């Protein structure tokens, strides 16, 4: 989510009438898994580098990811989307990737972060293009991205 934009809903659910439900479910499920994985990457990096000079930078980036995950948790409830069954895998794999990259030092951890963020940006841009086919219908989601 860019700029801390908040999705304001009248209730915990949104009207699903007229939306492409399979598309929205896929987008929210995949993005939630990605944000969950990113949180686990930062947890792994903090486990290794948390007390080093780069610890505060990692903590700051992790806090942003926590906000992103919170937003996708809210979207999952609002759009009635179930999480991926692969969350236990992302839990372990994300932590191992984060800790493993951190064992390479600050440069290794930052290289991992840059690679993941670039991939996520490409992914979000692709989703935005799909939602822009009917921007009025998906304006709330587009504001989140």
Automatic annotation (TrEMBL):
An example Gene Ontology molecular-function term: metal ion binding
Pfam families: COQ7
One cellular-component annotation, GO: nucleus
Plastid keyword on record: no
Gene Ontology biological process terms from the UniProt entry: determination of adult lifespan; regulation of gene expression; regulation of reactive oxygen species metabolic process; ubiquinone biosynthetic process
Domain of life: Eukaryota
Pathway: Cofactor biosynthesis; ubiquinone biosynthesis
Lyase listed as a keyword: no
Keyword field: Iron, Membrane, Metal-binding, Monooxygenase, Oxidoreductase, Ubiquinone biosynthesis
PANTHER family xrefs: 5-DEMETHOXYUBIQUINONE HYDROXYLASE, MITOCHONDRIAL, COENZYME Q10 BIOSYNTHESIS PROTEIN 7
Protein name: COQ7 protein
Gene name of the encoded protein: Coq7
């Amino acid at each position: 989510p860019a700029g801390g934009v908040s999705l304001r809903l009248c209730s915990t659910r949104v009207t699903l009438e007229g939306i492409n439900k399979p598309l929205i479910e896929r987008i929210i499920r995949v993005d939630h898994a990605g944000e969950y994985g990113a949180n686990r990457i930062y947890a792994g990096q903090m486990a290794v580098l948390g007390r080093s000079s780069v610890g505060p930078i990692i903590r700051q980036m992790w806090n942003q990811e926590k906000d992103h995950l919170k937003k996708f948790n809210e979207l999952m409830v609002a759009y009635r989307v179930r999480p991926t069954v692969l969350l236990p895998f992302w839990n372990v794999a994300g932590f191992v990737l984060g800790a493993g990259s951190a064992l390479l030092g600050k440069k290794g951890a930052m290289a991992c972060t840059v690679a993941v963020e670039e991939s996520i940006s490409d992914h979000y841009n692709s989703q935005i293009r799909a939602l822009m086919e009917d921007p009025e219908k998906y304006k709330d989601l587009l504001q989140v991205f």
